[in-house]
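Predict the structure of Murein DD-endopeptidase MepM.
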Amino acid sequence: MYHDKHSAGFVLHHPPRHAKPSGHSAMMRAACAFLAAACLVLSVTVYPASAATSMSSLQNKLDKISASIKQHKTELNDAQKKEAAAKALESELKEKVSVLQSQIGVLKSQISEVQNSIGVKEQEITAKQNEIARKEQEIADQWDDFKSHMAAMQELRDGGSVAMLRSVNDLYELLTFNEVMQDISVKDTEILDNMKAAKEALVADRTQLVEERTQLQNKKSELDAQNKQMQSKQSELNNSVKEARLSAAEAQQAQKNAQAAIESDEMNYEAVKKEIQKLIAAAAASKPQLSFSGFICPLKSYTRISSEYGWRKNPVSGVNKLHAGIDFAAPAGTPIYAAASGYVQVAGWSGGGYGNYVIIYHGKMTDGNAYSTLYGHMRSVATSAGRYVNQGDLIGYVGSTGNSTGNHLHLEVWKGGSKANAVNPRGYIPIR
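Done. Here is the predicted structure for Murein DD-endopeptidase MepM.
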């Protein structure tokens, strides 16, 4: 069996505060509260047919403006998110630029060190070239001396040696002369070898220096290439930072545009509210009687009556309490219709356990008493406070919101305009 748990003490003139957002903007809720209060002030009065038409037209305007405000707020929210994302991206890119600049700084320091090493190596190569030049000059001088020496030796071999042999007096002098000639030959060979070795050593040193310089130049070329790539990357990042900053600026402008549109809509909303106020004032002055002949069942179909009007033990608290209405068990989403014509006094969320609910003031019935009806636990509401609804108009859909344990419509009939005078709906509503 389906049950609902309502708090006691609900009075029509003091509807419960909303404990849950109804989906309307704050402006719409204020307007609805204003319209509901106006209906209470009018009590048993009603708008003429033309006034009801004007009210419906104005209500449509309010709905359109409310939808426009909602759309612009969505645009404002999207623009705020876009700005936040753009600023986050800008911050991230700036951090990358900062890291890259540090890397470029290190790279430039390395390039400077290599460049200095190349300069030092160039000086060493120049010094070595100068040394080679001096050594080559020494070798050239030695070579000239050696050629003179060899010429003398040749002359000695060609004839001088014979003369020297003639002057030898004994074998010892002869052997000594032979040794001297051999020493001269060895010395000449040594001189040639030394000159050759010295020149080869200088050339080797210079070749090594040139190779070291080439290696340094290659290293510098690599560092220059890395530096160029980093500079290019930094340029790209800087452009991306500019784009992110531009995107943030565009988002800020979009926010301004959306905010301006919201303010314009709210001004229009206030203007329509004033028109409604004038209409209510005019209707109050005319004071025509609102009357009806009887009720219809608010559901065209339902499965059963899950809970009757009367005292019962609360299934949650266990306390005996008056169940001030009848529960019609029905599938979720079943349409709910106005049991009689009248003005919607409340349409929204209840803090007293009804969930989404609607209260309609019907005025006087043919028995001379004024009546109101309450429809509770709706899945959603399909009307709004201040509307005039005809008997059978759609006002919402069956649900299980608020203090409810299953999908059903909780219906109350108030005789005299307040919950304190709730009566058994079976005496007024046709129930099979």
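The radius of gyration is 55 Å.
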